[in-house]
Amino acid sequence: MTRWGGVLVVSSCCVIAASCVLAEQAEPDRAKPHQVVSQGEPPRSPVEFNPDTGQPPLLPPPLETEPLTLQIRVTVSKGEPPVPPPQFNPDPGASQSSAQPPPFFKPEFQQGPSYGEEPLQGALVLPRYNVELKEIVPVEPQQKTFAGLEPLSASLQLPRSKVRINELIEHKWEEPDYLRQQGSGAYPTNTVPVVDRWKVPFAQWQRYTDRPAETPYQHATAALWAPYQQSILKGDAPVIGQDIFLDLTAESETLFQSRRLPTGSGVSAQSPGSTEFFGRGDEEFLSQNLSFTADLFQGETVFQPVHWRLLVEPVYNVNYLSTEERGIVSPNPQSGTDRLREYFAMQQMFGELHLGDLSDNYDFIAARAGNQPFNSDFRGFVFDDVNLGVRIFGNADNNLYQYNVIALPMREKDTNSGLNTFDDRDQYVFIANVYRQDFFAHGYTAQLSLHANLDDGTTHYDRNGNLTRPAPLGTVVPHDVHVYYLGWTGDGHVGQLNISHAFYEALGRDDLNGLAGQAVDINAQMAAVELSYDRDWIRYKLSLFYASGDRKSENGTATGFDGIVDNPQFAGAPFSFWVSQGIDLAGTSVALKQPDSLLPDLRTSKTEGQANFVNPGLFLVGIGTDVDVTPKLRGFLNVNYLWFAETDPIKTALLTDKVDNEIGLDCSVGVKYRPLLTDNIVVLAGIGVLVPGNGYRDIFGQGPGITGTGGSGKTDDFLYSGLVKLVFTY
User: Confidence class of residue 702 from pLDDT cuts 50, 70 and 90?
Assistant: First the structure.
C-alpha cells in the first residue's frame, strides 16, 4: 500500500467515526442495534389505576422492625425558681381552722432531736436555678428507606413512553450454511470466515523460553498429537462436528521382580542340594504390557457429563518367569524351570450413555455396559477388577451423593498375564454402593455397600495345567459358594487427621467346603483403619488390619474372611513383601495367600479359584511414612508386624498340631519418580523383606539357607521381593 493509500484509509475511518458521533448527538433517542422502542399506550400510574377498586394501594410492610432503644433525656429548668417555704404555704386555709382533733396517741416519751434543721449545702438552698431532670425515654426509630420504596426519579415515574428493551442476541458460533452457498462475496467487509469456534486461534503465549513442555499455548492452533500442547488426538478439539472428541492413549508398562519364596522341590528336584520338601526359592519375573486406548465421546465435559462414550483398550502382554526348581512353571517337571508366555486381550471395551439430568447443577444418571474397571471401595479390600458388566451410576443433591449399581457376569482370566478372556466363568457378582461427601465433617466421605458373590461350582484348569476349581485340598468336589457382604467404609480427613477405614460383614453358604468336608454357613468379618498426619512434606501413618479366622475348621460354620477379587492399596503396597507376593502352602496345591492381597485365604487363585472362608485370618499392625522429597520424587517406608488370627485351618491342611500364630516382621521401602512432573513417565522401585516368625517356621520347617547350599531343617532367615516398574504414557 502506498503512502497516499494509507492516508486515504485513515481519513475514511475518521470520517466514518465522526459521522457516527454526529448522528448520535443529532438523534440521542435513536435505538441502538438489538433494541426495541415501545410504541403503544404507556401504563398508568398506580395513583390513577388500582386493580382493587375502592381500596387505596397498600405498601408492603417492612421486612424487619427497628429494635427498642432507650436514652437518657436531660431537662434543665429555665423559668423562675420556686419560693422558699417561709414565703410559700401550700395550704393557706389551714391557719383559719380553730378545731383541732384530739391526739390519737399521747406521747409519753421525751422529744428526740429534731431532724432536717441542719444547715443545707449551698447547692440545695432555695431558690435554685438551672435544675436538671434526667429521664429514661425510648428513642424514636428513624424512618428507613426499603429497596423498591424509595422515591423514583422524574425519568422513572409513570407513565413512561418509548421504553427500550434489549433483545436476546442468539449466538451461532459455526458458519451459516447460506453463506457457504452464496460464495465468498456474501461475507461482510473486513471479515474472515471460520468454520467453527474451535478453529479460532489462541494468542501466542510462552511462559518460559527454555521449557517448551510447560507452554501449552505456545502455538496458535491445536497440534495433531503433541502431548504437552493442545492436541486434537488428546480430546482438546473435536474430530467430528462441534462436540465429538477423540482421546487416544498409548502406554507401555514394564515390571521386573526379583524374589525369594518358599518353594517346594517335589520328587524331581532341579538341584541336588535341595532338601526333602523345599528347594531353592529365588525367582525372576518380567512382564511387559503394551496398551492402546481410544476414547470417543460426545459432550463438553468441562460443563456437563458426556452424552455418550465408546472406549476400547487392546492390551498385548509378554511375560517371562525363571525359577530354580521344577514343577513351578508347570505341573509337568519336563517343562523345566522357566516359562515364556504372551497374550493379547481386549481388556476394556464398553459403551456409556447419558440417561438424563436430575437437576440444574448436572446431577445425572448414566449407564455403562461392557468390559470396564470397577473398584467397590476406597482401598480395594473386596472387589477391584476389570471385567464384563452392566453399570448404572450417577450423583444427586449437588454431587453430595454418588451411587453405583453393577452386575458382572465374570469372565475367566489368563493365568500368567491376568488379562481378560472371553470365556464364561459361571460366576455372577452384584454390587451396589452409595457415597456421601462431607458426611459428619467437611472433607470426610462415607460409603455404604452391598456385594453378592454367586460362584457356581465347576471344574477348571488354568493355562499352566493346574487344577484351580475345585481346590485340591480335602474333599475335592465341585461346590457352590454364595456369599453376601455388607460394608461401611470411609475416607477423608477430620481436621488435620486423615482417616481411611473399612468394615465388612460376610454372610452366606458354601455347600461343600473341601477343608471342612461338609457344607458350612459363612459368618466372617474384616476391619481396617489407617490414620495419618501430615507435617510439612512428611506423612506419618498408623495401619491396623483384622480379618477373622476359623477357630475350628471341621464344624459347620466358616468364620475366616475372604474377598471376591481384592487388590488392597494398604500397609505398604505395592512394595510390601506380604502384600505383593503369593506364598504357596507347604506341600499342598493351594496358596497360603495370593499376590496383591492381604488375606491368607488358602485358595488356589484369586482370579480363577473360589473364595474360601475356612482360613486362619490375619492381624496386622503397621507404621509408615510417605515423604515428598522433591516435587518429582516421593519415598515410602513401612514396617508391619503380622500374625494369624487362628491356626486350626493350617493345622488341618498340613495334618500337624504345631503351628504358632506369629508370621513375622514385614519391612519395605520404595520410591516413585516422575522426571517430567507428570504421569507421562513414572518410575517405581522398591524392596520388601519378611523376617519369618515362629508360625512361618512351623509351616516351612525345612528349606535351604540363604547361601543356597542346602541345610536340612533350616528355614530362610529372610525372604525378599524387589521390583522396578517403568510406565510410559502418551
Answer: very low
